[in-house]
Amino acid sequence: MSSARLPHLLLALVLAPLWLAGCARDAVDPKTLSVAMSTFSEGTFLPWNGSTGRKFYLDTVYEYLAYLDPKTGEPTPGLAERWEMSPDGKTWTLWIRSGIAFHDGWGDVSSDDVKYTLDRIRDPKSIAGPASPLRQLIAAVEAPEPNRVVIRLASPDIDFIRAYLSNGLIVPIVSKQYLEAKGDRVANEIPIGTGPYRIEEYRKGASMTLRIAEPSRSHWRVKPQFDRIRFLAVPEEFTRAAMLKTGEVDLAPINYDSMRAIEEAGLKLLYVQGNWAPVVRLGGLSARFNDKSVPWNDRRVRQALNYAIDKQAIVKAIFHGKASIVGADFPAPEWMSIEPYPYDPAKARELLKAAGYPNGFPIKLKTFTTNPGAELPIVAEAVSLYWQAIGLQVTIEPTNWTSLRSAWTSGNANTIAWTHRGLAFSGTLAGLQASVMSSSLFASYSNETTDRLVLGIGSALVPSERAERIRETGQYLRDEAAAVYIAFANEPYGASQRIGFWPALSQQGTNIDLITRAEPLASRVPR
After folding, report:
1. How many domains does the chain have?
2. Exposure winner among 44, 216, 390, 426, fewest CB in 10 A?
């Protein structure tokens, strides 16, 4: 397939039925920050009853034990003012900052709240992203004193704070007293945290408005520059771009095709650097849900699926160069040097023939849109064309993340492939524990070898040795073609001129509560 066909494919997909946002704001409220996102994911408000994709709004309400420095990625004190690791890397002691109050008078944060949160995140009913790896990693959580927490691990992890307890993931601290008094249903409807904002109004699947939680006093960590944050769920990218141009919203993720138009409209382009990777996952390859009948159970077939794809054409046509071709699952600094599969359709056909599929085979490819990941359906169309070119009979089936997640984690996705996003993790080991450990509910590829490799990373107490073991694990996954790898992408956002500085993390488009106003033109001093 010629890469020249891809721009026409993109145009056909973008010109879909659209919902228009209406007129621009008659008067811009200078005290309200308006943000349009593609989805609210589950639209839930407790750490354990939804996915990591909710961080952009949950992180304004709740707070974390540690916060990552947006420049260095190093963990800095949050609700925990300091921490200490035992020499064997298996025990972490954290000292809780005193005097940090939950909203509405539900007491100050204590070690009991931290223990309660971690126990709920690890509960068998939890569907949080880090639930599965934390169930295996944490042996016990103790609260010996009101301001001291002791976390005992089943295996060493020198990066535990950064990887799991920082705002790089989604383990924010809740009020034990409030949850036990009101129960999950009420606490989900009226979430109580320690963050600078609280929910004022939520219209399911449509909008949510947050207001400053305690307007009469300063927040201990953040000095919000907006009294309110209004989030809108706008699935159609064309509509989000139109809302930016009309001034209805100040910030929104956009497609790569829209970048030039956004700049030409006098708006800003902001990027969350290297925060996601388009990837195609294959069902039936995990230890939990193994299906030896699927053609891609043969490594040669999986390698053929990788060789078949012109990744350079996809990066150029779909991502407009704002991505790096890689041979790895999710953005990780240790994997930047891993050689990607070259585009070699002839080699792909040879491998299929050697595996017993000279005429290809039928395959269902499911796809959905998410944030980041609005381009996944377009990526699916491109992948489909490349696979058809080597003889596969591909059927694309649109779905949504909630349905796919349910099928994936219940063993009902064994005979399909699906587009997915590999998100950046604050600690690469945490990503591996979630994605390739046999014990993880979200492992799409796992076996005894991946388990051994990941456990070996954890046992490395010297950072350089740990990094080398992570690289070796990434190379193994690449050689096994554990998934179909494409690129590490920078996620583009359009922003109004009202937006000043946004210290977003590479892991997520979060830290929205830290967005500053742009300096008014009248107050700028000429240089």
Report:
1. 2
2. 216
Q: Would you say the pTM of this structure is higher than 0.85?
A: no
Backbone angles phi, psi at 275, to 5 degrees: -100, -5
Higher pLDDT pick, 413 / 25 = 413
Which of these, 45, 59, 48, lies nearest to 132 by C-alpha position?
A: 48
Residue 456 scores a pLDDT above 50: yes
C-alpha 412: how far from chain center: 23
Place of tokens 């909008």: 207
Written as six digits, the tokens of 288 are 């939990």
Do residues 46 and 123 lie in contact, with contact meaning Cβ atoms separated by under 8 Å?
A: no
Residue 514 in domain: no
Q: Using DSSP, how many helices (H) and how many strands (E) does the chain show?
A: 16, 18
Q: What does the CA dihedral 311, 317, 319, 322 come to, rounded to 10 degrees?
A: 90
DSSP-assigned states of every residue in 42-74: T---STTSS-GGGHHHHHHH-B-SEEE-TTT--
Residue 4 has pLDDT above 80, yes or no: no
What residues are paired with 294 via a beta bridge?
Answer: none
pLDDT above 80 for 327: yes
CB 294 within 8 A of CB 302: no
Give the domain extent around 148: 39-233
Look at residue 77 and give its three-state secondary structure: strand
In a domain, 494, yes or no: no
pLDDT-above-90 percentage for the chain? 80
Judge whether 148 lies within some domain. Answer: yes
Q: Could you tell me if 335 and 328 are in contact, meaning their C-beta atoms sit under 8 angstroms apart?
A: yes
